[in-house]
Amino acid sequence: MSTLFTATSYGAISVKNRFVMAPMSRNRATFEGLPTPIMATYYGQRAGAGMIVSEGIQPDIQGQGFMNSPGLHSEAQVEAWRAVTAEVKRQGGKMVAQLMHCGRIGHPSLYPSAHQPLAPSAIKAAGQTFTPSGMADFPVPKAMTDEDIHAAIQGFATAAANAIRAGFDGVEIHAGNGFLLHQFMASNTNCREDNYGGSMENRLRFTLEVVDAVVKEIGADRTGIRLSPANPYNDIVEEDTEALYSALVDALPELAFVHIMEANVRAITEILKTKLTSPLILNPHEHAADGPVGGEIADKVLDAALCSGVAFGALFIANPDLVGRIRMNGPLNDLDPNTLYGGDHKGYTDYPFWQPVKEAV
């Protein structure tokens, strides 16, 4: 039997197989950041995965970067998430909350607080974002003060505690894809001259302090972190990728897991694997032309002992019963790219399940 279908554990989180549903924003929460009943249906449908990593959840008001994205910073949000996690558990699954502070990625028109985005430095991101009035340039963010930094760290810790109260099995700290923690680590977005900028050690400080605060709140065995080495998404330039992530991994405590979103840099993944004391979850993209992660790619990295679990993204959107389909070599639904962000059940909870046709006796 393929290793994909065997049990394992990530810290205190025991899982029934090595499938991990990757975090994917779908923008079906309310404008105020409340998870909705349809989100409980969506995640419950996909509970065949050994572990689900939620879409990005803002840990505090300032962390929101997208319209209709969920939060974990109010009692109403905690209560609404309980319905989601309860449905996943009812279906036999495990779920962790991805805590994502967007930093400079956002626009005041996209959230109730209409705040100016925060960032390590007042450097705007190249590109545009979709707003209710159409496409708009990213604004120049506010450079974070010491008070802002300490408030953000506390926001992660409080949100982690809220996640456990809401029924999640743990949390994943998002430190990749050009969001706030990644912005502190990257040389083109962090031009600070204090203890959080300049040297590599200083640029890693914020991320490590967030990890430390979350670990103190809920324990290392329920805390994971997501990294995306060399990923230029959201206008990121690292320059010192191998040294940067080697230093980060060396400084991390033993966590429930480290989750790497691979950006065609397999050599760096292999280096980091040798340094890790935590289980590795890999979203494998060895080559740009590989396409969505499927069973063959997953088997390859598991057979090579490169990771303990494999994160599947796009295929889980279109195939709620992906685990069964891969086990039985079944057909796969096509993804509808027009329904990825926002909307109702269409392209969200209405993808059909596949039932193998039984041979006539």
From TrEMBL:
Domain of life (superkingdom): Bacteria
GO cellular component terms, A-Z: cytosol
Coiled coil region boundaries: none
Required co-factors: FMN
Signal peptide: none
Keyword vocabulary terms for this entry: Oxidoreductase
UniProt keyword Aminoacyl-tRNA synthetase present: no
Entry annotated with the keyword Oxidoreductase: yes
Pfam family, any one: Oxidored_FMN
UniProt domain NADH:flavin oxidoreductase/NADH oxidase N-terminal: residue ranges: 4-331
One Gene Ontology molecular-function label: FMN binding
Similarity section: Belongs to the NADH:flavin oxidoreductase/NADH oxidase family.
Protein name: Alkene reductase
Source lineage: Bacteria, Pseudomonadati, Pseudomonadota, Gammaproteobacteria, Vibrionales
